[in-house]
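ARCHIVE CARD
CATEGORY: sequence design from structure
SOURCE FIELD: tokenized fold
FIELD CONTENT:
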């Protein structure tokens, strides 16, 4: 019995020695302390905006690749929403253009307050962006064809139509007439700006009246409808172009599909209010892919000039 106990003790000691020998060997990774001790400030996060996920097909690509593809999904051809700066860089020769009427800013005529005062809402947007309002107007050349382009920015209160947009639109028409230039408007808006009430609604008649002057001067007006174009825009100058064109898949209408469905209590046709649906029903002249917009616009300007 004593001999068996001595053998077990020797075996245990030998095993301990083996464990000690294994512990002494160098390891590729050693955790000296338990827990993650890295402070939040020192953590390396993926930079925001480095990757973009397509909302239609969930394809993920880098922002640089998407920019190179003119913000069109390489997999499903979904046209991502972009602002005036991206359109101007894409269309104008050498990305060179002169902005017009950039000094006009919105004013809170009615001292309107909803969730917060309209004046405070404007100040917050001016602090966050370089935009002065929901539309920018620029003059430049597209393949050596001079043109005035007015483009809406959805980032500024949903690209809403207010007194400043109406004034910029009107001055742009006057500039076109004075300089004998064609006029392109890139529409992207949720409709009239409720914070300006009647001042906003007056812009519908004002802009339509200015377009009649452009027509009398025999100068072309092209309306490019992008996603989304709704409300007062589609009810006024958005649908009054000599040519009404649109990007693929753009949502275009007056009231939204959900509102219409709840009102008529019926299911809507597939693709209702998309640009393809409007083209089929005669509301558009043609649909143009963003990657071909510059060449198509050049072709139109040459035809109008001739």
């Amino acid at each position: 019995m004593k001999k068996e106990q001595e053998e077990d003790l020797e075996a245990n000691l030998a095993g301990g020695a083996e464990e000690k020998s294994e512990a002494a060997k160098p390891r590729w990774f050693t955790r000296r302390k338990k827990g993650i001790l890295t402070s939040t400030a020192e953590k390396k996060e993926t930079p925001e905006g480095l990757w973009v996920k397509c909302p239609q097909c969930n394809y993920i690509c880098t922002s640089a690749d998407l920019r190179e593809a003119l913000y069109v999904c390489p997999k499903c051809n979904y046209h991502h929403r972009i602002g005036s700066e991206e359109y101007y860089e894409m269309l104008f020769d050498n990305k060179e253009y002169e902005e017009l009427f950039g000094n006009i800013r919105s004013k809170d005529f009615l001292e309107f307050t909803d969730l917060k005062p309209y004046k405070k809402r404007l100040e917050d947007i001016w602090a966050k962006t370089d935009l002065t309002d929901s539309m920018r107007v620029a003059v430049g050349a597209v393949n050596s064809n001079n043109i005035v382009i007015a483009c809406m920015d959805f980032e500024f209160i949903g690209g809403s139509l207010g007194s400043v947009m109406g004034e910029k639109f009107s001055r742009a028409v006057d500039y076109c007439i004075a300089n004998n230039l064609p006029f392109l408007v890139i529409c992207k808006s949720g409709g009239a700006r409720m914070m300006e009430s009647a001042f906003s609604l007056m812009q519908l008649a004002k802009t339509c009246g200015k377009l009649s002057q452009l027509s009398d001067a025999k100068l072309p007006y092209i309306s490019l409808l992008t996603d989304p174009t709704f409300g007062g825009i589609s009810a006024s100058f958005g649908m009054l172009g000599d040519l009404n064109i649109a990007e693929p898949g753009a949502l275009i209408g007056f009231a939204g599909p959900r509102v219409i469905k709840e009102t008529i209590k019926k299911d809507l046709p597939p693709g209702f209010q998309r640009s393809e649906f409007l083209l089929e029903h005669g509301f558009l002249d043609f649909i143009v892919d963003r990657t071909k917009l510059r060449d198509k616009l050049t072709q139109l300007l040459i035809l109008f000039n001739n």
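CARD ANNOTATION: The chain is about 35% helix and 15% strand. The CA atoms of residues 18 and 95 lie 73 Å apart.
SHELF: design records, drawer C
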